[in-house]
Amino acid sequence: GNGDDRILEYIDKPNKSIRFLPTTNSIKSLNRSTIESISTFYNKIVLEEEKIILCHGTPDNCYDFLIFPDNRLNDITSKYRDYHIIAGHSHSYRAIKKYGKTYCTIGSVGLTFNCKSDAEFSILTINNGNVEVDHRSIEYNKKELLDEMVKEKYVLNNGPVGLLAFDEILSSDYRLYPFFSDYTAGRLIDDNNIHSEVKGFLQKLGRW
User: Fold this and answer.
1) What would the pLDDT profile of 2-56 be if each residue is shown by its tens digit?
2) Which of 26, 42, 43, 146 is paired with 61 by a 20 to 30 Å CA distance?
3) How far apart are CA 150 and CA 136, in angstroms?
4) What is the pLDDT of residues 169-183, one digit of tens each?
């Protein structure tokens, strides 16, 4: 996924900003052999017999969305219309049937962008060329999670991006996606300016 790309990018150019503090912290917790193993990961897995592609974003780009937040299906699917495509990246569940195929983003267990304190996952059933998605949502204790984040100094250790994630859980409203896709659209965001950008975004929402 895109997080793996960021880690490998950092290893190749250690003096380059990794862009965001949470990823930098993740790298520090990994040993060299673990990092090197990431380079062997597949960009996509193709189950040819079942005609299913498993990928992070789209089969061609781990940074792109298979299904956009406004429920538009990515045009890339016309290139793969013989395949069902199961993806992630958006951290939210969406499913669309087209060309007689299933296109699905399965949500996220660890950081779900669903404005609820739920962990999400999906179970696929394959039957005679058809793929059915059974989406599951499991509620967890939001207060307990927030208390743990405060105890572990999550925002302090993860900077402005961590603050967005924390406030998304606290408010049960979207923060990360609208910040990166709408509020900062067309602007380069990195560790040099993200503090002021997040502050402006949260001020606009009355959350600063």
Assistant:
1) 777 777 776 666 555 545 566 666 677 777 788 778 777 778 999 999 999 999 9
2) 26
3) 28
4) 888 888 887 887 788
The two tokens of residue 104 are: 């699905």
- CA–CA distance from 127 to each of 20, 33, 70 (Å)? 42, 39, 29
- The pair phi, psi for residue 30, each rounded to 5°, is -105, 140
**Model pTM greater than 0.70?**
yes
